[in-house]
């Protein structure tokens, strides 16, 4: 467990040193060094997406206020909206009771969290034994990604 020194002056004027934990030390990362991240709209409380974060992604999220994640398929840290313009402004972060999952509470820029142009990545529902699209596309993905590269 990483700790850093914290110096405090007590009531007698003596400087006392104590160890404090880094906030990320309370997170239980899996064997790959990752923790699940649930992304929730700060106003509506709707779940927008699910992702993964490593220690670097979490620290960058706190430092920048933007949603930063770890891509398992690409093996690298990425910033939501870097190529589409659909950034996430993180206004709060929560840790579950066991320290095994994190929630980012966000303001979703552009109203789209999914690369398909849907508000949420959870746009399919189970009906009669099959998955059906339950929400419309609100932004054309080709336009989103074309505009951000200009």
UniProtKB/TrEMBL annotation:
One of its GO terms (biological process) is L-histidine biosynthetic process. Its EC number is 3.5.4.19. Pathway: Amino-acid biosynthesis; L-histidine biosynthesis; L-histidine from 5-phospho-alpha-D-ribose 1-diphosphate: step 3/9. InterPro entries: PRib_AMP_CycHydrolase_dom, PRib_AMP_CycHydrolase_sf. It catalyses: 1-(5-phospho-beta-D-ribosyl)-5'-AMP + H2O = 1-(5-phospho-beta-D-ribosyl)-5-[(5-phospho-beta-D-ribosylamino)methylideneamino]imidazole-4-carboxamide. Keywords: Amino-acid biosynthesis, Histidine biosynthesis, Hydrolase. NCBIfam families: PRK00051.1 (NF000768). The keyword Amino-acid biosynthesis applies. GO terms for molecular function: phosphoribosyl-AMP cyclohydrolase activity; phosphoribosyl-ATP diphosphatase activity. This is phosphoribosyl-AMP cyclohydrolase. Residues 49-122 form the Phosphoribosyl-AMP cyclohydrolase domain. The keyword Lipoprotein does not apply.
């Amino acid at each position: 467990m990483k700790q850093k020194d914290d110096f405090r002056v007590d009531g007698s004027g003596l400087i006392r040193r104590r160890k404090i934990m880094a906030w990320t030390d309370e997170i239980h990362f899996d064997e790959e060094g990752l923790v699940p991240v649930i992304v929730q709209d700060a106003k509506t409380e709707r779940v927008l997406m699910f992702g993964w974060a490593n220690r670097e992604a979490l620290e960058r999220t706190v430092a920048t206020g933007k949603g930063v994640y770890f891509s398992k398929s690409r093996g690298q840290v990425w910033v939501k909206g870097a190529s589409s313009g659909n950034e996430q402004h993180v206004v709060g972060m929560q840790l579950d009771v066991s320290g095994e999952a994190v929630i980012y509470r966000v303001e979703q820029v552009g109203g789209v969290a999914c690369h398909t142009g849907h508000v949420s990545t959870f746009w399919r529902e189970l009906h009669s034994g099959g998955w059906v699209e339950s929400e419309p596309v609100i932004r054309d993905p080709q336009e989103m990604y074309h505009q951000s590269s200009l």
